[in-house]
């Protein structure tokens, strides 16, 4: 979703769901016209050569559409997903939703936090305000044998972490959610987040990741020296 705008969300979700599979993507760097910059700030985590970076809003329909595709690609390629919260101000409950996800991640388990995010995306149509989110989260925690804390973020540290993600997004000029970027040590390829419906297509994630992994593997393999021809002299 474009920052502070509700326009064209339905059209974007429909376009990405009906769009034919794009021509085999390459990992050649970011197109110059996408409006994003400072992408060198985004790096794979330690121990990984490639990562899928996602800036998302829990209330964004296009994010909900892309979410299962991201998970499928990560599972198939063993490439990690780095999620950054980018709650849009006009979505009155998504800032708190991001705080809830951070609470589960920090206080319970990262795996359970990933499950919470998936379930929030699936339940988007039933969450219209903060009260709806409160009920959803309380019931969700009960189903997972957890209690809803009386105050989820008493010192504001979770909200600060969410704001940190948002500020990083602003530094690279994120305007749309989801913004999805495949990154390696020294290259970045935007998959979604340009605002161009003919380019933004989450189904391209797999081909871009495959190209990035192949490129990283080839770079890690030292070239074999050419064998010298034997002399014909005895």
Briefly summarize what is shown.
Helices cover 42% and strands 9% of the residues. It has 234 residues and is of the alpha+beta class.
Structure notes:
With 234 residues, the protein is an alpha+beta fold. It has helices at 9-18, 61-77, 94-107, 110-122, 130-143, 157-171, 205-220; strands at 51-56, 81-85, 179-183, 188-192. 34% of the residues are buried.
Q: Helix/strand/pairing class, anyone?
A: alpha+beta
Q: Please state the overall shape, judged from the principal axes of the Cα atoms.
A: globular
Instruction: Give helix and strand order, one letter per element, not per position.
Output: HEHEHHHHEEH
Query: What strand order characterises the main sheet?
Result: 2-1-3-4
CATH architecture: 3-Layer(aba) Sandwich
Cα separation of the termini: 75 Å
Roughly how many Å is the radius of gyration? 21 Å
Total number of beta strands: 4
Profile the largest sheet. Answer: 4 strands, mixed
Mean pLDDT: 87
Number of domains: 1
Number of H/I helices? 7
| CATH superfamily membership | Glutaredoxin
Query: What is the level 1 CATH name?
Result: Alpha Beta
Give the proportion of residues in helices.
Answer: 40-55%
In terms of per-residue confidence, which ranges show pLDDT below 50 for 5 or more consecutive residues? 4-24
CATH topology: Glutaredoxin
